[in-house]
Amino acid sequence: MNEDVKAKWIARLEDPSARQGRGALSTNRGDCCLGVLCKIAVEEGVIPEPEGVSHQGALVFSGNDQVLPREVASWAGLTGPDKGNPMVVSPVNYSESDTFSFHAGDRVGLASLNDHALNFVGIAGVIREQL
User: Fold this and answer.
1) Which residues lie closer than 8 Å to 126 by C-beta, 6 or more apart?
2) Which distant-in-sequence residues (6+ apart) come within 8 Å of 27 by Cβ?
3) Who contacts 106 (Cβ-Cβ below 8 Å, separation ≥6)?
4) pLDDT in tens, 61-120
5) Cα(102)–Cα(99) distance, integer angstroms
6) What 3 state SS string does 79-111 have?
7) Residues 6+ apart with CB under 8 A from 112
8) Which residues pair with 107 in a beta bridge?
């Protein structure tokens, strides 16, 4: 991952004023960790301002409201088949039901950690160590 982008992303996630949201890149309730990266990409001129709001109330960045746009992943230096939702090794166990769970050591997408298991500070630590 591009170290400059990584440093900006981590700083934004660790900002006490950051509001964490779930289920979409960004809504009026808060941002997913991936939405935070999209907003930085907008500020850096990588992608334009969101083009609107999806029927679910999420901001749409370059046609996406759930995963990183290709342009953002490329600019950030994220590679691999899952660069729209970068895979990391989970530091925690999580079980919501019999149908959705993961364990420490499992590979999971950052969006899953955001939506189910870690706050922004925890996610920043995972990004710092693994990306």
Assistant:
1) 88, 91, 110, 113, 118
2) 21, 56, 57, 58, 59
3) 89, 90
4) 999 999 999 999 999 999 888 888 899 998 888 887 666 788 888 899 999 999 998 999
5) 10
6) CCCCCCCCEEECCCCEECCCCCEECCCCEEEHH
7) 85, 102
8) 89
